[in-house]
Each structure stands twice: as C-alpha cells, then as structure tokens.
Amino acid sequence: MLENEKEICNCNMIEEFMNKIFKTYLPEKDNLIQILNEVQDEFGYIPKTAQEKISEFLKIPMAEIYGVITFYSRFTLEPKGKYTISVCLGTACYVKGSQKIMDRLKERLKIEPGQTTEDGMFSIDQTRCVGACGLAPVFTVNGEVYGKATVKKLDEVLDRIKIRRIRGLGFGDGFKILIIKNRDFKPVPESLF
Ligand code: FES
Fold it and tell me: Is residue 88 within 6 Å of ligand 1 at its C-beta?
C-alpha cells in the first residue's frame, strides 16, 4: 500500500465497495474494464487496494491490471482533484493555440499534467481530441467542454471556481451564468462560455 494512500483513502470503504460490485460480476477477465470503470467513478482513481482485490477476484496478475490502467487515459493511479481541467492538444486545438492555454494553466496552478494541487482542488490533464474540433481550441472542466477557449476564458473559469469555493458553493447548475465584475456576481449569457 502506498504511504499517501493510507492518508487519503479509507481501505475498509474500498473493500466494502469492491465486495459489493463483485456480487454483480462473474469472475471473468472480460469484466476487467467495466470493474475498473466502476472503481474510477466511485473513487476518482484506482486505489492499490482495489487493484489487489480485482487481481484476486479475476485471477489476473497485478502487472496486467497496472498495464490496463496506464493504457487508458480515463483511469488514473492518483486521486484526482475536485476539478479536473483537461486541455485538448489534438491537432485541431493545437493549431488554434491550445498550448498557450495549457501553459497558462500550469502557470496558474503550479503543477504539470497528471498532477494535483496540494489542496486537492485541481488536477491537470491533457487530451488528444474530445470530439469538439469545430470549437477548437477546447478545454474541459470535469468533462464539461469550453470551446473557442482563450487564456482569458481559462482565467475567468479558474477565478470563478476559486470564488465559489470561498463562498462554499459547488460547481453545479448555475455555475455558467456567474462571472465576477467589479467584485459582484453578474449574470452573463451562456454563449460567453
Ligand atoms: S482536436 Fe481538440 S477537440 Fe478535436
């Protein structure tokens, strides 16, 4: 078990969850991806404890499970931040300047792609294409697409997340119609985002 995992995860909770989902699957290798999907959705990453349980259940070596997790970008071995911001560096987005957005994101959060801020708030990812090339350049926040992106738009999104955090608000409905102007929240058209 990783040292930092002890601090972050509740291993009993993971074992409980694994035992619960194992009741819904046959112990067949073909079920590996689906089980990993469930774990990723539940915990935001694939904890070592879950890998061990899957290995026992499906009788697959740990190395093979590790290989699958690292092959698919959807799966992660580290806990993700509350907000995962992913910049598309696929061709259409790259030629429209998405590298500048990535550079600004790294500068603002002081982390690299694949890392999470110390406060557990933000993670950075990079993707190759999210299927929204017509809106290039694109970044996503927890899977929500922000098209025709600019560094300014990224700054606005980061600022709004931080302010909503201070106010104890989530990133749910209504988020997109809030913007800070003269220190007040003002409604803005959805099309701005
Ligand atoms: S290349 Fe970025 S969405 Fe397709």
Answer: yes
Rounded distance between C-alpha atoms, residue 97 and residue 151, angstroms: 10
Q: Which residues belong to CATH 1.10.10 in the chain?
A: 3-71
Burial of 19 (0-12, 13-18, 19+ CB in 10 A): exposed
Whole-structure pTM over 0.85, yes or no?
no
Atom 1 of ligand 1: nearest residue by CA position = 90
CA of residue 26 to ligand 1 center, whole Å: 37
Out of 129, 140, 148, mutate this one to test ligand 1's pocket (max ligand atoms within 8 Å of CB): namely: 129
Q: Say which CATH architecture domain 3-71 belongs to.
A: Orthogonal Bundle (1.10)
Topology of domain 83-192, CATH: Glutaredoxin (3.40.30)
Asked whether 135 lines ligand 1 (CB < 6 A), one says no
In contact, 145 and 105? CB cutoff 8 Å = no
Delimiting residues of CATH 3.40.30.10 domain(s) in the chain: 83-192
pLDDT digits (tens, 9 = 90+) for 5-47: 444 557 888 999 999 999 999 999 999 999 999 998 888 889 9
pLDDT of the residue at 32: 97
pLDDT tens, 166-190?
555 554 433 343 333 333 333 333 3
CA dihedral 89, 102, 75, 163 (to 10 degrees): -140
